[in-house]
Amino acid sequence: MEATLFYILAAVLLTGTLLAITARQAVRSIVYLVTSFFALALMFYLLGAPLIAAFEVIIYAGAIMVLFLFVIMMLELESPEKLPQPHFTNWLPALLLAGAVVGSLVVLLCSRLRAVPPGFVEIPVRQFAFALFKQYGVAVEVVSMQLLFALVGALYLGRRR
Amino acid sequence: MTISDLYTIMPIVITAGAALFVLLCGPMLLSASLTAIGVTASAAAGLWAALGTPASTQAVSGLCFTPLARFLIPVFCFAAAVTLLLSHSYNERRGIKGEEFPATVLFALFALCVLPCATNMLILFLALESVSFAFYILVSMDLNRAESGEAGLKYLLMGAVAAAFTAFGFALLFTGSGTLQLSGALARPDNRAIISAGWGVILVGMAFKLSLVPGHLWTPDVYQGAPAPVSAFLSTSSKVAAAALLLILLALFPPMPELRVPLAALSVLSMVLGNLAALLQQNIKRMLAYSSVAHMGYLSLALLSGSRDGYAAVLLYGAVYTAMNLAAFGAISSLSIDEERELVTDYAGLGFTAPLRGGVLALAMISLAGIPPTAGFIGKFFIFYSAIKGGSIALAIIGILSAAASAYFYLRVVAQLYMHRSQAPAPRAVSLAEGLALCLASAMILVIGVYPGPLLKAIDTALQ
């Protein structure tokens, strides 16, 4: 049951992301991305992390994507210009890289790997918070410094001159 | 966490505190005092690290003051202090105002101090990304020059792709080993295929960061567009940080045979193409950028050997390269007028009209070319020695030949400085801070070149 759900969600996630990067209109691409975020949230839930699933929906699909939508609507972008079809030579590096990825996947799948034992084991919020702020407290601090300076840099570079 | 734990990670605390202090109190203080605070904080952090004793236990979960950190933090602090000293009068001339510049340099230093202390892959990755983040801002700091913004955008796009590769690589290593901790207990990974895939992807990301061919395309544009003191900091610290990350990972997952071929290819391509491209450059910053591609090729040659000698050569070369490039970009920065002198021919006759700065530039070029008695010779000597001892004789010969060819474009600058006369008026006098920074960097070049013993001893203890 869980395995079937996982594969359905994985298919939705991959298709959604693929369409998000190939869509020619920004709004469509955001809607596709929101779809894939929902699929990702459900996958986190299946892996036993309901809190992460909730964060994924609230922060990514909710806050950030809505912000993106607002920005795009405020900019009032015109319909995208027509680009010429990419030539075969432009596809070549992408095909080469895709071939390498598919090849290594085949190698990985052929070598017998122990699969992750399925099953829903819920991790309580208290344990999650303990891991986040005790075990990875330094990481939280480093990230907060990084975000602070991202803000400082954005303000500095966006200053009117 | 106890008080003594706090003492061991004091360099990180000092730099983070100074960055936040400069940011908060910036509007109330003069820009000279902000620079002074920055220099004092970096000097204090560097001295604290150099005089401290490495701890074997984690200070806080995820951070440990390792012997490697004891060696690398002073190097990073030296680079940051010299950058701040150089940038003060440069920024005044170029109209770069505000507390953001020193604060961001200190933030970069904070992230650089966290990196060698990390005991966990997540923090290692976050520290590396924070360093890149600080540089995205610093590169585009000059709002009056369009090239600066362009360079920042190019660096951001390339860096984001590289970060994605590195993150994916760490995720694969995590999948293969089952934990994020970087401890010796994991030295025997079971899932060899996944681990080597992770290594490959990390190598791609690091090739961008170290600007190894074919990931080097951003380097000339970014070095040319960035303000010269930022180029000095970028070309030294971020490269040493990326090399340190590879060293930390190599200590954990011993070099695998799969890694040899890609690393050898990256190394050869960087050495040969970097030096050949530098031969053709007329712009001095682009020339130094291609030369840094070649120098990172030498560095990965030493990584390739996989022996203790090789890793010692990497650390030595990191320190030597820091001193050389700080001197070279420092001289370029302090010789700039309203605009930077871009072409090599713009430096004609400056050896006579600006003796100190011309001399430092000439010394840096001689050292980059690897001519004794400068530090560059010692660095190259140990790299090629470890490569030959490690069995990669063909690669070492290619490296030595390309290093010999590189002498042409370095010595061309020296020839312009001393064998040509120009009618241009003498450049403005050197400021005290710039003079101090240039003297410090060139003293490092000469001291390491003549008397490398103490540094080699420090590297020996750092590799335990």
Automatic annotation (TrEMBL), chain A:
GO MF annotations, alphabetized: oxidoreductase activity
Organism: Geomonas diazotrophica
EC number(s) per entry: 7.1.1.-
Enzyme class: translocase
Xref: InterPro entries: NADH_UbQ/plastoQ_OxRdtase_su6
Keywords assigned: Cell membrane, Membrane, NAD, Oxidoreductase, Quinone, Transmembrane, Transmembrane helix
Annotated catalysed reactions: a quinone + NADH + 5 H(+)(in) = a quinol + NAD(+) + 4 H(+)(out)
Subcellular location: Cell membrane
Name listed for the protein in its UniProt record: NADH-quinone oxidoreductase subunit J
Parts of the chain that traverse the membrane: 6-23, 30-52, 58-77, 89-115, 135-157
Topology versus the membrane: Multi-pass membrane protein
Role noted for this protein: NDH-1 shuttles electrons from NADH, via FMN and iron-sulfur (Fe-S) centers, to quinones in the respiratory chain. Couples the redox reaction to proton translocation (for every two electrons transferred, four hydrogen ions are translocated across the cytoplasmic membrane), and thus conserves the redox energy in a proton gradient.
Family (UniProt): Belongs to the complex I subunit 6 family.
